[in-house]
């Protein structure tokens, strides 16, 4: 069975900006989905922000193994209920790929618990991406480094938690460096953030980038998810002990009381 991927795109620049329309006639989400579908192990469809429920209904997400997320212009316009729904699915085991300016999306900041801010410069600089974890599955088939001729500079400090793994580090003409490919786990779900992907450059047509995306989907896929989300893991007392115990001292809670109101 193929890995079921939903490629989510904000789809604002794609519709309104002439440069982006020329580079990506089917939208960035369409280009990313096409790249993923070149692998027979992946079945990618798309969803966009202007659709009802942003294209991410409970039913759709329940049948999604990995979600990719690209947003930029209107992070605040994403419905909080949809964000909570996506976060729940990640905790249950759905994989998540956050792309480029999605670093500042509601869903990424919610799952990271940090500002996820960075420094940036839009000057069309060369970006050299170093594969610093060459044995990682996301780096499979890549050279020790590759170059994107024109890119938006993303630089440190990157206000995210310490990554589980750092797979890529980028260097730019201006001298800055950036942790451009990092991984996390939240509950049963794997998260991969990959920074290249500024909309006015044809970055998602680059074969190295497309390889990273396909590898990232396969890494994030969890064939045996925990299926335990935030709402399925209540905070409750363990009134019964496995081994004999002797109670010492006063107790605050009555039997069966959770302590929360």
Label this structure with key terms:
globular, 261 residues, nine-stranded mixed β-sheet, alpha/beta
- Read across the widest sheet, the strand sequence of neighbours is 2-1-3-4-9-8-7-5-6
Radius of gyration: 21 Å
Number of strands: 9
Major sheet details:
9 strands, mixed
Structural class by sheet pairing and helices? alpha/beta
Shape by Cα distribution: globular
Q: What is the CA-CA span between the terminal residues?
A: 45 Å
> Based on the structure given, which CATH architecture of the domain at 3-114 and 177-232 is correct?
3-Layer(aba) Sandwich
CATH class category label of the domain at 3-114 and 177-232: Alpha Beta
Q: Write down the secondary-structure element order.
A: EHHHEHEHEHEEEEEH
- CATH-defined fold name of the domain at 3-114 and 177-232: Rossmann fold
CATH superfamily of the domain at 3-114 and 177-232: Class I glutamine amidotransferase (GATase) domain
Helical proportion, percent range = 10-25%
Bin the strand percentage.
Answer: 25-35%
Helix count? 7
Mean of pLDDT: 93
Question: How does this model look, in words?
Answer:
- This protein has 261 residues and is of the alpha/beta class.
- The protein has a domain at 3-114 and 177-232: Class I glutamine amidotransferase (GATase) domain (Rossmann fold, 3-Layer(aba) Sandwich).
- The protein is built from seven helices and nine strands, in the order βαααβαβαβαβββββα.
- The protein has a nine-stranded mixed sheet with strand order 2-1-3-4-9-8-7-5-6.
- Helix 5 (80-92) links the parallel strand 3 and strand 4.
- The chain is globular, with a radius of gyration of 21 Å.
- The chain starts with a strand and ends in a 41-residue tail after the last helix.
């Amino acid at each position: 069975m193929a890995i079921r991927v939903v490629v989510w795109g904000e789809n604002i620049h794609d519709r309104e900006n002439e440069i982006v329309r020329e580079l990506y006639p089917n939208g960035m989400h369409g280009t990313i989905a096409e790249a993923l579908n070149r692998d027979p192990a992946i079945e990618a469809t798309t969803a966009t922000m202007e659709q009802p429920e942003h294209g991410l209904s409970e039913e759709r997400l329940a049948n999604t193994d990995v979600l990719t997320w690209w947003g930029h212009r209107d992070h605040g316009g994403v419905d909080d209920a949809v964000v909570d729904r996506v976060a729940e699915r990640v905790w249950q085991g759905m994989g998540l790929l956050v792309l480029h300016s999605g670093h500042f999306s509601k869903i990424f900041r919610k799952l990271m618990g940090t500002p996820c801010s960075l420094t940036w410069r839009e000057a069309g600089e060369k970006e050299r991406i170093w594969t610093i974890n060459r044995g990682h599955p996301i780096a499979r088939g890549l050279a020790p480094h590759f170059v994107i001729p024109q890119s938006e500079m993303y630089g440190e400090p990157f206000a995210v938690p310490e990554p589980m793994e750092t797979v890529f580090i980028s260097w730019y003409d201006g001298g800055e460096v950036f942790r451009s490919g990092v991984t996390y786990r939240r509950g049963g779900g794997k998260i991969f953030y990959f920074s290249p992907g500024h909309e006015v450059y044809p970055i998602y047509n680059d074969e190295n980038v497309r390889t990273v995306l396909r590898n990232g989907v396969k890494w994030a896929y969890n064939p045996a998810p925990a299926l335990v989300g935030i709402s399925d893991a209540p905070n409750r007392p363990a009134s019964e002990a496995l081994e004999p115990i002797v109670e010492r001292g006063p107790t605050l809670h009555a039997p069966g009381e959770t302590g929360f109101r």
